[in-house]
Design a protein that fits this description.
The chain has one domain. It contains six helices and no strands. Helix 1 packs across helix 4. The N terminus is likely disordered. The protein has 133 residues and is an all-alpha fold. The structure holds iron/sulfur cluster. Iron/sulfur cluster binds next to helix 3 and helix 4. The site of iron/sulfur cluster has 14 residues, from helix 3 and helix 4.
């Protein structure tokens, strides 16, 4: 087990024992900076984390490699929670929790009203899989 309290992917007891909203900033940072984070070993260029396009669709293409890592990241919820809490600093910029800056800005009001990052990510997943007319 890592110091983060998480068990390595595939290990026994992989289910989360706690929720990101219950953790301190320090605990969240320990998880996001742990070897469990998909971005920990590289795999994407620095530019992949900071798309410059103003249109979301274009920005998602620019950040595709980073977003692919985030999609399978076991600490994604922790990462998004930390970003929301650090909005006045580093958490505002680039890709966090598999979302672009503009995407996080769009859901931050809901987060501030008490909606958990888990629910916000579930809602986004459902929205993305809904066929458009
Ligand atoms: S969600 Fe993405 S940015 Fe956050 S720790 Fe995981 S891979 Fe890194």
């Amino acid at each position: 087990m890592y110091e983060t309290g998480l068990v390595a992917p595939g290990g026994a007891g992989q289910a989360r024992a706690d929720r990101p909203g219950d953790l301190t900033d320090r605990q969240l940072l320990a998880r996001v900076a742990s070897p469990l984070a998909r971005c920990a070993g590289g795999g994407a260029d620095a530019d992949d984390w900071f798309p410059v396009a103003t249109r979301w669709s274009r920005a998602r293409i620019e950040a595709a490699r980073a977003l692919a890592l985030c999609a399978k990241c076991p600490v994604r919820e922790d990462c998004l929670e930390l970003s929301m809490r650090q909005w006045d600093g580093a958490g505002h910029y680039g890709v966090w929790g598999g979302l672009l800056e503009a995407e996080r800005a769009a859901i931050r009001k809901e987060w501030l009203s008490g909606v958990s990052v888990s629910r916000l990510l579930q809602a986004r997943t459902a929205e993305a899989s809904t066929p458009r007319p």
